Amino acid sequence: MTRTVPRHVPVAVIGGGQAGLSMSWHLKQAGIDHVVFEKHRAGHAWRDQRWDSFCLVTPNWQCLLPGHPYAGDDPHGFMLKDEIVAYVEDYVRSFSPPLREGLGVDRLSRLGGRFLLETAEGAITADAVVLAVGGYHTPFVPRIAERLPEGVVQIHSAAYRNPDQLPEGAVMVVGSGQSGCQIAEDLHLAGRKVHLVVGSAPRCPRVYRGRDAVDWLADLGQYDLPVSEHPLKEKVRRKANHYLTGRDGGRDIDLRRFAAEGMRLHGRLDDVAGGRIRFRDDLAQNLDAADAVYNGICALIDRHVEDNAIAAPPPSRYEPVWRPDGFQESLDPVAEGIAAIVWCTGFRPNWSWVDLPIFDGNGYPTHERGVTAMPGVFTLGLPWLWTWGSGRFVGVGRDAEYLRARIAEHLSAAELRATG
């Protein structure tokens, strides 16, 4: 939606995804004047940076944006891409936030006692700012890609849409996080010859002992566990998400089964030299580690079932259906008929437009539950901002509610200083 933006706003919310919209809902409920700035359209990432068969990996019942819980007839299903976009668009219509689409913030800095937002429509000041732009900004492709043969088409997962988009021939998918595994499956189901470069991402069961694992983990409080109480503390923010899928009603992703069906699995990418792609000898280790996490989650659920005398089907343990037979150190992509590579190597944050002293040595915003060290600057929607649910539909609203109270305190203190 298009709206005129005043030259000064009490609160500027930068980003119109689920985080920024959740923040707007809580601010509007509290009667706090604000504007949400969105460079593209609300829900841009879901609409424009996902492949055609994309769906949520968490059940629909976890879609709990503030004031807008899932209201469909399939709470244990998994929204498809277009349904996710519709959910976000319905959310916007449900409370008419002060949303300015098509207007991004090019630079954010401090100007006296206020914050200065530089936009294509001029400068705007604010008393408080919420950075609700998430942590996945710039598609990352390693420089090693520059040494691949020129005839091999290369795209990032953010640009992948479907198998027909790629030239005929085999496809190498680099990365085995959620995107990598799901794109590899998409290509595999389409009958393409797939080479998958496997990293250290863990895996999770889809259904165990008669229920979706997400349901069990929610009962166990895993989505509510704050970073401060997690065994890894701050390091958990750098952990890869577990891979599984909601496709076709939801199922495990078992890379060993894919291999038994003809997918070629490789260890991590090590180098490209002399026209050959070289791999590390860690495939077996990576598969075993992912299975150990899978079985560990099952064991956690087993203890919960036993401790609470819950009637459930008997326990089980995953046993490998395929194991690597030797180590292929390298391959020639041209000789193997590899026509394309899909880089599922994630994103890098880009906070270069924020000219404020709120970052640590790695360029990550320093904060405590979204409250940065600089009064009046808040961040929302980051993975593990506060809990595992922080970067998801299920937990972002709770974080926004907490920040609403902190923002109100900041505005009240600023008003007292101005009148004192």
Unreliable residue runs? none
Task: Note the total helix count.
Answer: 8
Instruction: Give the total of beta strands.
Output: 23
Please name the fourth-level CATH homologous superfamily of the largest domain.
FAD/NAD(P)-binding domain
Number of domains: 2
Percent of residues in helical segments?
25-40%
Explain this structure to me?
This is Putative flavoprotein involved in K+ transport. InterPro entries: Auxin_biosynth/cation_transpt, CHP04046_FMN-dependent, FAD/NAD-bd_sf. One of its GO terms (molecular function) is flavin adenine dinucleotide binding. The chain has 420 residues and is an alpha/beta fold. It has two domains: 8-137 and 349-419, FAD/NAD(P)-binding domain (3-Layer(bba) Sandwich), CATH 3.50.50; 140-343, FAD/NAD(P)-binding domain, CATH 3.50.50.60. The chain is 25% helix and 21% strand. The chain has eight helices and 23 strands. The strands form seven sheets. Strands 1, 2, 5, 6, 7, 8 and 23 form a seven-stranded mixed beta sheet that branches. Helix 1 (18-29) crosses helix 8 (396-419). The chain is globular.
How would you summarize what this structure contains?
With 420 residues, the protein is an alpha/beta fold. The chain is built from 8 helices and 23 strands. It folds into 2 domains: 201 residues, FAD/NAD(P)-binding domain; 204 residues, 3-Layer(bba) Sandwich (FAD/NAD(P)-binding domain), CATH 3.50.50.
Summary tags:
monooxygenase activity; seven-stranded mixed beta sheet; 2 domains; FAD/NAD(P)-binding domain; oxidoreductase; 21% strand; five-stranded parallel beta sheet; 420 residues
